[in-house]
Amino acid sequence: MTNLVEFIWGGTAAIGIPLIVVLVTTVSPLRGEMCSTLVSATDEGGIADLATLQARGFAAFRSACRKPRMHLSSCMFNTTPSNPANFKFVLEPVSMPFKMRFDVKASGDATIALAENKTVSSTFAQISIGGWSNSKSAIRACDEPCAIQVEDEESGLLSETEYRPFWLEYNGGVVNVGKGNQSESFLEWDAGSVHSKTPPQVYVGISTHIKVSGSWVFYNLCG
């Protein structure tokens, strides 16, 4: 993927006409259609500095061009605010081992339940991504209230304006959660050792908490 940033100048200061500066951000994808955005580089104080121009340009690109990676095996779901969490079980039972890839668009508090049945009470791992108002992520051993087993302090993992990619792997009772194409997980927990069992089939539930709505896209395991 190649980012091309162009500055287009118009007008002339010599005759008293204000300069018009436009920032064009163009992305050439490996496949699919090219996407471009255009933002003004001038404001009341004149031409913005380079850092401000870059922030404006790529914010416009993310809003206009970054879409969920839909393909034939994808499936999309929406979640509405709930407190306590109201999990929607969205996939057919998945056999261990599996690696699930998905995108989420939410301001925070996106939660996944791994359960033995289609019931919240059978949850054996509850994964909160961007929990606590998008300030950290964690895994619990059951539905709340339940002690946190492991957590990660990275903030800002989720966005309410763009889809963010993640993956979740369950193998031998161990749960790993990672971002996009990164091979290293930011959450890892051995559910099997804590529960002294490893369910061979798993039901997947999704939820967003309190005042948050979410959009989810899964790219495999849709059945």
What does this structure look like?
This protein is mainly β and 223 residues long. Helices cover 11% and strands 46% of the residues. It is built from three helices and 19 strands. The chain has helices spanning 50-65, 131-134, 191-195, and strands spanning 2-10, 20-28, 35-40, 42-43, 46-47, 75-79, 81-82, 88-89, 94-95, 98-105, 110-115, 123-130, 136-140, 148-152, 164-171, 174-179, 187-190, 201-209, 214-218. Strands 7, 8, 9, 11, 12, 13, 14 and 18 form an eight-stranded mixed sheet that branches. A six-stranded antiparallel sheet has the order 6-19-10-15-16-17. Strand 2 and strand 3 (35-40) form a beta hairpin. The longest helix is centred in the first third of the chain and has 16 residues, at 50-65. Residues 1-15 and 28-33 have low confidence and may be disordered.
Describe, in short, the structure shown.
This protein has helices at 50-65, 131-134, 191-195, and strands spanning 2-10, 20-28, 35-40, 42-43, 46-47, 75-79, 81-82, 88-89, 94-95, 98-105, 110-115, 123-130, 136-140, 148-152, 164-171, 174-179, 187-190, 201-209, 214-218. With 223 residues, the chain is mainly β.
Q: What is the typical, i.e. mean, pLDDT?
A: 81
Beta-strand segment tally: 19
Helix-strand makeup class: mainly beta
Report the portion of residues in β strands.
Answer: over 45%
What percent of residues adopt helix (DSSP H or I)? 10-25%
Q: Give helix and strand order, one letter per element, not per position.
A: EEEEEHEEEEEEEHEEEEEHEE
Main beta-sheet annotation:
8 strands, mixed
How far apart, in Å, are the first and last alpha carbons? 31 Å
Radius of gyration: 22 Å
The DSSP helix count reads 3
> Which segments are poorly predicted (pLDDT under 50) over 5 or more consecutive residues?
1-15, 28-33
Write down the overall geometry. elongated
